[in-house]
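Posting for a labmate who doesn't have an account.
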Amino acid sequence: MLPCCLLASLLLPLAALDGNGFAPQGDPSYGLADHPAREVLTDAHDVFNDDFWNLSEDQKKQARILEGKLAKKFRDEAGMPSVNRMYSDALIMAQFRALLTDGQQAVYDVILGPDEKLAQTLRHVEEGIFTLGREIDGLSASEREKAIALLQSAAKRLKADPQTATASPDDFFLAKVMPEFGAILSDAHREKYAPMLQERLRKMQVALTTEHLRRIAISAMERTETASGGLADDLGALAADLDPLFFLMGGSKVEIPADFTMRSAREKADWVNQNTDFVFLGADKNRIGPFVIAYIKPELAKEGNRFALADGNVHALDIAASAKLIAELQARQNASLKQE
């Protein structure tokens, strides 16, 4: 079944266009009675009206004509055994997609494609773009058009790199969409809201860094239940369980290699150990508890640090408190090495 519309309908209800295939006004069956295409056409009507496509007036007209033609076609073929739900879905999808521009087709392929994670990520992007739009007192008509283009660009990126893009919708929005949001604004809007957008960006980076540290802690904790019984020797040991972006701060400047997923387990582990933004202290620990196992590299923590504990919690400390704790952690580590 095609999914129902995600946003409010843009078009008027179905009209009585008997000659073009529509059922009489007030008849929701399209004249198809119990034919499987009846429900398909109802869903198709919602899909055709979805805000995601940003249809032009001509495209809306063509979509309505297509809807009527399909209803008529299904009525004419109602007695044919080849007409079934799968046939109906495929026919509608192919013909409606042909009405769309390249950018619209990218959105269509993600939203109606087989990968639900991709669809969820793009919906997340759409929500983020237009939430920001509302926070700056609404987008102008010109800005809204650019916002739609930004959404279409995001869809193309999702199609090109689905695994990395769907590992964390928030990270994708922060890295690929947020930096470009300012470019869609008018000069006046950009100047007025630059401080707010910069603060929003900072908060997103902090929240994602915290989440990445939490994911590292949880992944390490789960290893205590395996045959190895230990947390992990290093972060590279967790590369098989976590997407590489989780070993980086939110908004990190480190570029994840395009061929990362194709690399061997050893190569992935080496890359993580060499490029991570975090210090890991889980080696030789075989239990969970409220002790530090990871934190941000001090040279990257400009406003204080965050410390992941081996119980899944993450704590934030200011610059002075962070420096003191890190010194204590390093002293303990050095003492442990001397004992060995």
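Reply:
Got it, the structure tokens are right above this. The chain has a mean pLDDT of 81.
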